[in-house]
Every structure is written in C-alpha cells, then in structure tokens.
C-alpha cells in the first residue's frame, strides 16, 4: 500500500475508454481522471453510458489493458487488487430482501476477508454510520427505498474501500429519502476522506454535493469542471452575447454542450424498464 | 414518510459513534484460503435464509412424501418391478431422496439469473472472489440445502417403515453423495443459465431436462428393465450414480460405491468449471 507511483496515481484514470454492446457504442472514447479524495459526479441523461463506464471501472465488463486504472492498477491486469479497493453500489436496489440488514452487511465483510474477531464490530460500525443501527435485525424486505440504499452503502463501507462507486444512488427515491441518502454519503466522506465517484441524472444533486463533474452524453465527456466554474463560464458567455436573465444552472450548461440531442435521448425501452423496475421495488 | 427527521437525528448521532474499523482495509487471506472462506460465506447465507423462512422446506417435502406414499406403497403391492428382494418402497426411497435434491439444485440457475437482474450478482462479482469460488460456493450452498431436504425425506421414509441404516459412517457417506450430486446439478443449471441468459428460457429448459433426467435413471426402476437406448442414457446420467450410491449406503444393497463417488466428484468439478467459464456472460 505504499510506493511513490501508487500514492501519486489518481483514484480513477480512463484513457480512451470504449465499450460497445453489439452495434451500440455505449461508451465511446471516454477520458476521465478522478483525483484522490474528491467527490466526482458523472452526469448525463438515461442512456448516456454512465452505467457502462462504471461497469468497466469495476471490472464487471472486460476492457483491454491500458484503458482503465484504479489507484494506478490496471483493471484488465490486476482485477482482484482493484476489487479490494472498491466499494460498489449498483443502480438497482440490490440488498437481499430475504436476509436481515445485519446479515446483508456481514456477507460483504466475509467476502472481503474481514477476520472473525472484528467482524461483528465492523458490521455494527458500518450499520451505525448509515443510521441503521436500530433497524439492523429487521428483514431488508421490510425496508423503505431510502433505507435499502443506506444498507447498500453500509455493505460497501464495511471493507473500508478507498474508492466508493455509487451508480444513481437516489434514482426512484422521493425527495426526502434522497436528502437522507446524500447526508450519509457526505458524512461518510467527511469522516473517512475516501474518494467518491457517483453517477446521477439529477443535476441539482451534483451541483450541491460534487467537487467536480463531467457531463456525459452519447458515451463521451462534453464538459468537465467544478459546478461553479461550468455555470459561471456559461453565464459569462451569455452576458458577452448580450443576454440577461437568471444565472444558468448545470442543466443549462448541459443543454449547451449536448446540443439539441438531450431531449430526444431520454432513454430507450431498456432504460425505461430498468428505471421502472427500480422505482417499483422502492414502492 | 417520516424518514427525514429520523435520518437527520441518527446521522448526527452516529457521527459521534466510532468508525475506526471502517478506516482500515482488511488483510487479504492467503490464496489457498480464499476458496473455503467464500464457500463458508455463501453457505452461511443459505442457512440464514432457511432459518428465516422454513416454508420452502415443508412445501418441498410434500412431493417426495406423495411419491413414497402413493407410488411406493402401490408398487410394493403390485410387485411389478424387480428390486432384488426388498420391498419396492425401500427400493424407491433413495431414488426419491436424489430426486428431491436434484429439484432443489436445478433451481439455482433461475436464482442466479434473478440475482443478476436484481444487481446482487454484480455486487458479489466486484468483491475479491474469483468466479470459480463464487460458483463453488453456490454449489455447496445447493448441497447444504439438499442435505437438509434429504434429512426430511429420510425421516418421512423411516416413518413409512422403510428399513434405512442408522450407521453414522454410512449417513456421513449419504451427506457427501447428496452434496456432490447437488453441486453437479446446480452447476448444470447455472451453466445453462450462462448460455440462455434469460429466466423464461431457463424455466423451459429446467422443465425439459429434470423429468427426463429423473426417468432416464435408476431412481424408479433398475437399469436392467430399461430398453437399450435408455440404459445408455442412464449410464451417462450422474443421477443414476447418485441413486446407486444412496441405495448402497442406506439399504446395504449391492452397489458400486467407488465408481459412484468418482463419477459424482468428477461431474461436480466439471460442472464448476463450465459454470464458472460462463458466469462472465451473465455479468454483461
Ligand atoms: N447489457 C446491455 N446490452 C445491450 N445494450 C446495453 C446494455 N447495457 C446498456 N446498453 C445500452 O448502452 C447505452 C448506454 O447505457 P447505460 O450505460 O446504461 O447508460 P446510463 O447509465 O447513462 O443510463 C444505452 O443505449 C443502452 O441501451
Ligand atoms: Mg445507468
């Protein structure tokens, strides 16, 4: 866990990342660097390729060597080493409904080789960190959508990952549960200093919680920077062109860089179906 | 929703709580210890699920009970099937144990597709768990569940007056046979899952193979009464070896325990290899 090259390496480094499903170029030449310790938001509408990019970074999809590095380790060559550094919460609500909250987290403590003598305590700390200490022994099937998301956060945290990857952590949740989930993400990040890579299509959330964002559209990054820089830049361009009105939002920035394509690519059937499925399970 | 105030309260309260362990990465286990550790982890989950919900254990006991009660007792009276001198219901009991274990194991392919759709499988694949260890863990979990089921059927059979052995060494052998057989059938079903990729198609396949595997085995009748082509199928059907071993162990009838164990172990290893190789397709 030491050595100059590794401490200097960014948390995530993608160069020319590309992945196609048959004819669909889901990710199409993605360049991305996530610095250690930042909360980085990957933004884009349904179908932009966010999930596919995440699945390449998490070693779920096979990519050629040299395209993706996590803390300097190549995802194609050092799969197991990369996985030990990751905590991953997928887009679907993926806690096991037929186990209790505690059992769900214990499974992940076990598969990350947490020794038995500290397992129970570590699991309890992870559950407490997401505010589920009291509900820990209820079946996960009885949890609300927001609680399941927090349980999944605990599952990811129990192995003390250096990089936490969250794919649409608030999709399908009501506004109050969304706030609850983000509160715990922010708190955990403040307490541990871990790097967070999060995808979302809610621009307001990214504006509020991310240090830097990349706007992704049709498999590529179209703009990159802090939310403040991006909106300020657009505001200045608009003023220079003589326009007046409310200061632009991240969504306005997105409309500008993505062109007219934004509205008519709000997802094909596949995306709609999986979003609905998630929404249904949230209830 | 009353979540917001509660979440705020606990969030601020927990920040005061200790998280020291969550700052330290666990030490990786030595290479050779990863496989047994993952098998134990997945078997523990299986036991937890069985503890939370025993209804499946009971509903799955109905079918074997009916086979023994109706089929077994009827054919014991008719004496139509040559059993080598023992009552037909005794002859049938090991076959029904193997059958109910196979039905449980075949379900694992559907389960792994369900886990893929729910994101559970993806999450496990992003842990330091080699694919073969994940499949082996699932195979043993299937074996464990089958063993629990087998014990239920053994009790039912004993209650119906079947003269089974209570020799602990032989019963230990029964456990091993049931685990190996279920490991193979769960891997067969996960292999097919890796080929067809969708639950609907797998359901069709599951139904299309389980009954033929059952009828093309010595579970209901000895191989000697089968037509030649069926004998050939039975020879390559691991279920026949499982039943042969179970009969030998439980009833003490003449059997071929050495070859039976060898075939079952070999089939299980092949099954794990095939299912592991195809697991990547499910993750895509
Ligand atoms: N398993 C898959 N098979 C075929 N096409 C897929 C698959 N997953 C994603 N796609 C397609 O790839 C594109 C990007 O999808 P995705 O990465 O899920 O986008 P996002 O997460 O930004 O909504 C979409 O057009 C989607 O339909
Ligand atoms: Mg997505």
Q: Describe it for me?
A:
- The complex is a heterodimer of chains A (283) and B (284).
- Chain A is built from 12 helices and 10 strands.
- Chain A has 283 residues and is of the alpha/beta class.
- Chain A has a domain at 8-87 and 195-282: Rossmann fold, CATH 3.40.50.300.
- In chain A, the strands form 2 sheets. Chain A has a 6-stranded mixed β-sheet with strand order 6-7-8-3-9-10, sandwiched between helices. Chain A has a 4-stranded antiparallel β-sheet with strand order 2-1-4-5, covered by helices on one side.
- In chain A, strand 4 and strand 5 (73-74) form a beta hairpin.
- In chain A, helix 6 runs parallel beside helix 7.
- The longest helix of chain A has 18 residues, at 175-192.
- Chain B has 284 residues and is mostly helical.
- Chain B has one domain.
- Chain B contains 11 helices and no strands.
- Chain B has helices at 3-16, 31-52, 55-78, 88-118, 120-125, 131-159, 168-196, 199-215, 228-235, 238-251, 257-283.
- In chain B, helix 2 crosses helix 6.
- The interface between A and B is large, with 65 and 50 residues.
- The structure holds adenosine-5'-diphosphate and magnesium ion (MG).
- Magnesium ion (MG) is lined by residues 50-51, 91, 167-168 of chain A.
- Chain B: Keywords: Antibiotic resistance, Cell membrane, Membrane, Transmembrane, Transmembrane helix, Transport.
- Chain B: It is found in: Cell membrane; Membrane.
- Chain B: Its main location: membrane.
Overview in brief:
The complex is a heterodimer of chains A (283) and B (284). Chain A is α/β, with parallel strands linked by helices and 283 residues long.
